[in-house]
Amino acid sequence: MRIHLSTLVLASVFLLYSAGCLPTSMFIEGGTTGEKPEKFQAQYRLFGCLRPNKTLLLTPLAQKRYFLTDHAFYEIENNGSGIKITNQWKDAAGRYFFTWVKNGGGFLYFIPNDPTKHNLLLRYANHSYKVKKMQGAMQPVGKLPEVCVLKKL
């Protein structure tokens, strides 16, 4: 199993926060801590990520679940803790939700309007992007990220 540095950083931040050591606002931007929403439009899980050689690394044991609501996108761990992403924007292609770790990785979730298109998680490595305000939201600009597919449940 391949674990990305950005995933480790985010997990470390959540562990420290859960233990009461750090306020989330010290590290996480674009969202707040959150729990599984009671009502949601859709639920997703990580299906797999594209490798640099264009093969798909499947993730059948992915432990996180993702939830779309009218106003936010949630990334929830099996223990019920997680993040509520409120930094978002829309265009003709779909909805975007972006959160990032200060001095760390960024995570852009794309939910297309066309149900035949893939739901995506784009993971930006540390120092590979900058955050700029565009269309009323903070958005990543930089090198192409790692592309992962979210499967709708």
Shape: globular
Q: What's the number of extended β-strand segments? A: 14
Please count the helical segments: 1
Q: Percent helix among the residues?
A: under 10%
Oligomer: single chain
Q: Give the low-confidence spans.
A: 1-25
Order of helices and strands: HEEEEEEEEEEEEEE
Terminal CA distance = 23 Å
Rg from alpha-carbon coordinates: 15 Å
| Binned strand content | over 45%
Structural class per helix/strand content? mainly beta
Mean pLDDT: 84
Main sheet? 12 strands, antiparallel
Description:
Mean pLDDT is 84; it is low at 1-25. 9% of the residues lie in helices and 48% in strands. The protein starts with a helix and ends with a strand. The chain has one helix at residues 5-18, and strands at residues 28-29, 31-34, 42-50, 56-58, 65-68, 73-76, 82-85, 88-90, 94-101, 106-112, 119-124, 129-134, 137-142, 146-152. Strands 1, 2, 3, 4, 5, 6, 7, 8, 9, 10, 11 and 14 form a twelve-stranded antiparallel β-sheet that branches. The protein has a two-stranded antiparallel sheet with strand order 12-13. By secondary structure, the chain is mostly beta strands.
TL;DR?
This protein has 153 residues and is mainly beta.
What are the SSEs and their pairings?
Blueprint: H1 5-18, E1 28-29, E2 31-34, E3 42-50, E4 56-58, E5 65-68, E6 73-76, E7 82-85, E8 88-90, E9 94-101, E10 106-112, E11 119-124, E12 129-134, E13 137-142, E14 146-152
Antiparallel strand pairs: 1-9, 2-7, 3-4, 3-5, 3-14, 5-6, 6-7, 8-9, 9-10, 10-11, 11-14, 12-13
